[in-house]
Amino acid sequence: MASLIEAINQDLVKFQKAKDEIAVSSLRLLISDVKNAQIAKGGELSDAEIVEVIAKKAKRHKESIEAYGQAGRQDLVGKEQAELAVISKYLPKQLTDVEIEKIVDEVLSQTEAANLGDLGKVMGQVMAKVGGQADGGRVSEIVKGKLAR
Question: How many domains does the chain have?
Answer without folding.
Answer: 2
